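Input record (one chain):
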Amino acid sequence: MESIMRLSLLPLLLLLLVATETTAASRCIVKERRVLLDLRATFKDPHGLLSSWRGLNCCSWYGVTCDNKTGHIIKLDLHNDNFSNEYALTGDISPSLVNLTHLEYFDLHGNDSGGASIPEFIGSLKNLRHLDLSFAGFGGKIPPQLGNLLELNYLDISFPNGTFIVRSNSSVDNLLWLSRLSSLASFLKLRSPSSGSGGRRETYADTHFLVQSRSLLRRGRRSSELSAAVTRGGG
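The corresponding structure, as predicted from the sequence alone:
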């Protein structure tokens, strides 16, 4: 009799298991899963960091955190602490990232973008609170679109030597977007112009990113000083 009862409960348990799996998978929003697949396609991943990025439930994929209630992706943490290209993601960030409209946390620390500029479209992620692109091989200009990220309370785009060099033919206006990031308590301090090589005049902008809460500094990293040298044509 007892064995018959156990057998009769088996289909019910299987049904419950399937329902649980379906519910878990349904948490992942299809449109946002496609964004992650686009990211995986544009990254070179020699160490298989993104090997778990398969199946329906993208909320269980490596580095991905979804909101428990809405299912939207709110955190994408793909940092690399090994400081080695063997483990780093390389390549460009897919522009489809802008479709993660609920993203609050984005970390590419320690990866390798090969000297590409920080993408302007990152400034469209209006809900970002934490942005870490430090030591990730970015170069070129700092896009002023980052000034649209008014919710930021952590920003790190530093290089190994602590310097980000921006060259401009006009003025330091392309750094004034920093003043809009009041949530960062950031400030811009300009040094007096000095004569540079070739008779040009240079203005140096020391940008200090002050973090409101020390608890946001993961792994004991300090908030970094970003020094930008803006070269102006002079007579």
